[in-house]
Every structure is written in structure tokens, then in C-alpha cells.
Specification:
9 helices, eight-stranded mixed beta sheet, 2 domains, Rossmann fold, Hypothetical Protein, Haloacid Dehalogenase-like Hydrolase, Chain: A, domain 2
Length: 261
């Protein structure tokens, strides 16, 4: 079997504790020892996957919603927007008066010229507190990215923004002044398809575990879909199995349910 894990709210808590339960670590390692493949499948950039998570032991990573795929040490996909288009997107977002963070597999870029939308400031501080100070400026000559996130408020021209990025990205509005943009043509679902093909495994032998609606593509791409017990009602309805909560040994319970440990 091959298992795909979301990160936030699935492997690591989204609260102030921001921790990975010991039972999660033990269960994933036990499943690997029994020959099952363990993969991360996340919207995060590869650089944003902490060493604490990597040390658990995974066979590979699908990051940036499928734009970057790594199987062992082999890079299966690294889909970066053409630099000319990156510059066009950055100019549009600046003109729309939003605060963006551009995500590439190895770094983040920010625009030092833009106004800092109030909702972004606590996010920036949280990243700095966690030692994730890998901001680079978009004026650097190698500026390029897979995906991006952006914050907006009442002063931002969000309608123009949505229309302007449509040729390159699918826009997911998280409300509360925050949007995520994923590259068109790739997703958590397409990442599963590509990785399963690489290993010669049927999607029928794949398990996907997530907790939020941005996990919907991967939950719908496999026969065995698992919603964490802390998930919203909508996520639980689309899953074939609902496990216990993250702090209630949810990952261990799910892997045991499918006989992997």
C-alpha cells in the first residue's frame, strides 16, 4: 500500500502546541518497516516541510499542490512558472494592493514594495519564531515560483486580482482576507496519479489522509480516503473512513484500520 498524508491538521497540530503526536511517528515508521510507502502530499513548499516532519521518515514528497514531486532523491516534477509570467503576476498583485508570498521548492520570495496587510503580520511573526526566515526579495535575478499565497483587505482590488491570475492559477479564497493560488493543471490528485504510476501501484491500493477542504482532490482520487476526526463535516462526508482526532492517535488508528500496522 501507499499512503499520502496532508501536513497541517493531519500530521502536525494547527494550535499553539504545533506538535506531532508520538503515536503518529511510531505508526508511520512501523508501516514503512512492513514495506508500505509513505508520502507527504501538501500545499506547502518543500522548503517549508520542517526537519521534524522529515525525520519521521517518508519515501517522498508531493509539495506545492503537486507542482513539486520528489520520490526518494529523484525529482519527478518541478513545475515553475516562466520568469516573465512571474514578473507579470508580481506586478498585478502590487497594483491590486495585496501582500503576497511567492513559494518555490527551495525558498520564499516577498515584495518589499507592497503594503503589509494587517492579517499577514501575525503570520510573518509566527514564521520567524519557528526559524523560517527564508524570505528573499522579488528583485533578485532568479525570482520564480510554483504557487503563492496572498493577503487582502478592504483596500485591495480582489476582483481584478482574481481575473488577472486566472490564466496561470486556480484561486482558493480562504475568506478572512487570505487566498491560495495553485498552478493550473496540477493538484494533490494529479500528484497521487504520477507517484502511483512511478511505483507501479494502482490508486486502489492508495490511501489519502487529510482534514480540510483543500485535501478534497486527493481524498476523491483514491478508493481509501480518510478524514481526521477533527475535520469539518464536509470532509468527513467525502471520506470512506473517519479516524479519531490528531491528539487521539488518529493516524495510528487509520493505519491500523487498513491493516498497515
Amino acid at each position: 500500500m501507499i499512503v499520502f498524508f496532508d501536513i497541517d491538521g493531519t500530521l502536525i497540530s494547527g494550535d499553539e502546541r504545533y506538535c506531532i503526536p508520538a503515536s503518529t511517528v511510531d505508526a508511520i515508521r512501523a508501516a514503512r518497516r512492513r514495506g508500505h510507502l509513505m508520502y507527504i502530499n501538501t500545499g506547502r513548499a518543500f522548503v517549508d516541510v520542517e526537519e521534524e516532519i522529515r525525520r519521521i521518515g517518508f519515501d517522498g514528497y508531493a509539495c506545492s499542490c503537486g507542482a513539486y514531486i520528489r520520490c526518494g532523491e529523484e525529482i519527478l516534477q518541478n513545475r515553475i512558472l516562466e520568469q516573465e509570467d512571474c514578473r507579470k503576476v508580481a506586478s498585478l498583485i502590487h497594483d491590486c494592493d495585496m501582500t503576497p508570498v511567492y513559494e518555490r521548492w527551495d525558498t520564499f520570495f516577498v515584495d518589499q514594495r507592497v503594503r503589509l496587510v494587517e492579517q499577514f503580520i501575525p503570520v510573518m511573526k509566527a514564521y520567524e519564531q519557528r526559524g523560517k526566515c527564508f524570505w528573499r526579495d522579488i528583485d533578485e535575478p532568479d525570482f520564480s515560483f510554483h504557487n503563492l499565497v496572498a493577503w487582502y483587505d478592504g483596500k485591495s482590488d480582489i476582483a481584478r486580482f482574481r481575473q488577472g491570475v486566472e490564466p496561470w492559477f486556480d484561486c482558493i479564497d480562504r475568506r478572512a482576507g487570505f487566498v491560495e493560488l495553485a498552478a493550473k493543471g496540477v493538484s494533490k490528485a494529479s500528484a497521487i496519479e504520477k507517484i502511483c504510476r512511478y511505483h507501479g501501484i494502482s490508486e486502489k491500493d492508495a490511501i489519502a489522509i487529510g482534514d480540510s477542504m483543500n485535501d478534497a482532490p486527493m481524498l476523491q482520487a483514491v478508493k481509501n480516503s480518510v478524514a481526521m476526526g477533527d475535520s469539518s463535516a464536509g470532509v468527513k462526508e467525502m471520506a470512506s473512513f473517519v479516524t479519531t482526532g490528531l491528539y487521539e492517535d488518529g493516524i495510528a488508528h487509520a493505519l491500523a484500520h487498513y491493516g498497515l500496522i
